[in-house]
Design goal:
The protein has about 260 residues and is α/β, with parallel strands linked by helices. The chain has seven helices and twelve strands. The structure holds flavin mononucleotide.
């Protein structure tokens, strides 16, 4: 591959975005790879990438790039390095997330050469409400790897341009999350702190009990996935209503959509 230093930049509370990025990276087969995992809250970093290439990945929240991703990306810029965009969505729709991500990173100096909307298990999937369970599956990951190979070929053969990406500008109105958060059943909780460790926005504290600042929760469900005893659940009526709609309307598996 011509661009031998690959930067993986991602936000992935429940891990599906990261899985797909890794498969694309395998297809690109770089000599060196640097991970910029923006999932956990850290000191804001300023970083200008001036060589190699990048893959930037985000989960789709309400058809948009999550606000937390925008904040965490704010310190990044690039000097025209070739960049692949990834939006992971839970088999409903990805709507305007990829065009929004394209616009945000283009303004920062990244040169978008390809983009893909992939399907991942919905963050709110449960055994009673299965939505895209097990995605990305073997087929998705094979496709992602082949996509990486296609991008490598595009970069080698040139000319390199930004493909058409589906989505609307102006983007759909942003939905603000918060006020509703997962809860812990004290009888099943061992106070191990895995939930707090998994939270991207540090709104969970574990001392003699698990306390959640629901006002600042981004509703990503990472804490639910991380709980080893299943004491942490997200059974709020708002979320259960959404689960019901997802099962009713979004059970037909969707295929990834690639733009190259
Ligand atoms: C708050 C929230 C909003 C979401 N909105 C959408 C959506 O608009 N369309 C969709 O298909 N999936 C949606 N999802 C599902 C996620 O995009 C999906 O589960 C994704 O795989 C999560 O990525 P991650 O595993 O990297 O965290 C939403 C999930 C959450 C938590």
């Amino acid at each position: 591959m011509a661009h031998n230093d690959l930067h993986l930049i991602y936000f992935s509370p429940t891990g599906t975005t990261e899985k797909v990025m890794d498969a694309i990276a395998q297809g690109l087969n770089p000599a060196k790879m640097t991970r910029h995992d923006l999932t956990k809250a850290k000191e804001e970093q300023e970083l200008c990438l001036d060589n190699g290439m990048a893959i930037i990945g985000i989960p789709v929240y309400a058809g948009r790039v999550p606000e937390t991703c925008l904040q965490r990306l704010s310190g990044f810029s690039a000097q025209n390095i070739p960049t692949v965009l990834v939006a992971l969505y839970g088999n409903r729709k990805f709507e305007d997330a990829l065009v929004e991500l394209r616009d945000v990173v283009t303004a920062k100096g990244f040169s978008v050469v390809a983009a893909g909307a992939f399907v991942g298990e919905h963050s709110y999937a449960t055994p009673d409400y299965p939505v895209a369970v097990g995605r990305p599956d073997k087929g998705d990951l094979k496709l992602a790897q082949e996509f990486g190979q296609q991008v490598a070929a595009k970069l080698t053969n040139g000319p390199v341009s930004t493909p058409h990406i589906s989505g609307n500008v102006p983007y759909k109105e942003r939905v603000t999350f918060g006020g509703v958060a997962p809860e812990t059943d004290a009888t099943g909780c061992h106070l191990c702190g895995e939930c707090a460790g998994a939270c991207p926005v540090d709104v969970i504290s574990v001392d003699e009990a698990v306390i959640t600042d629901a006002g600042h929760c981004i509703m990503c469900a990472a804490c639910v996935r991380a709980c080893p005893t299943k004491a942490r659940t997200f059974d709020h009526p708002v979320v259960n209503h959404r689960r019901g709609l997802l099962v009713k309307n979004c059970s037909q598996p969707k295929a990834p959509t690639l733009f190259i």
